[in-house]
Amino acid sequence: MKKIAIAYHSGYGHTARQARAVLEGAGSVAGVEAKLYDVTGLDEAAWAELDAADAIIFGAPTYMGSASARFKEFMDASSKRWFAQTWKDKLAAGFTTSASQSGDKLNTLIQLMILACQHGMIWVSLDILPGNNSSQGSVNDLNRLGCSSGAMAQANADQGADAMLESDLKTAARLGQRVAEQLLRLRA
Fold first, then answer.
1. CA–centroid distance for 167 within its chain
2. How far, in Å, CA of 104 to CA of 122, rounded?
3. CA-to-CA distance for 60 and 67, rounded, in angstroms?
4. Domains, the chain, ranges and CATH?
5. 161: which DSSP letter?
6. Would the pTM count as exceeding 0.90?
7. Model confidence over 37-87: pLDDT tens digits?
8. DSSP class of residue 29?
9. Beta bridge partners of residue 167, listed in sequence order
10. Residue 104 CA to chain centroid, in angstroms?
């Protein structure tokens, strides 16, 4: 059984909901087991589980154009793994949420990708063409925000996580599924 760890931080619940969608997608693939890890205050047992995972999918809200400070603390704390090359050759992917349509979410995904590259991990992109980019499109399209490097979601600042668009959650689920599929394909 291949293992996927979903390491995330969520300030207001939106990124946690997106993480659950990634979990659902990853868990839908036979032969793969996925688990959520809130990076706030990981204990040694949780770090050991991240180290043992075959893939890690990183998730952080985008605050002020980059990953949240709490997620950045996790990034910095992973330096012991970097030095030992513990995560080298694991698969990696990323997701983020912000209140704005852009919110500079791409910067957060690039930050997550660089984290993965620093660790020698193999980045898995999103394989869905951009949606909602023609007169025939709508906010119900998967990948409605048009990102290839990971899953993006937009959540209104004045609404809770229960009001997130289903298309963004389905896009996140597809990212989790894709990582699981690539894990089985590359690590058969």
1. 16
2. 23
3. 6
4. 2-186 (3.40.50.360)
5. G
6. yes
7. 999 989 999 999 999 999 999 999 999 999 999 999 999 999 999 999 999
8. S
9. none
10. 16
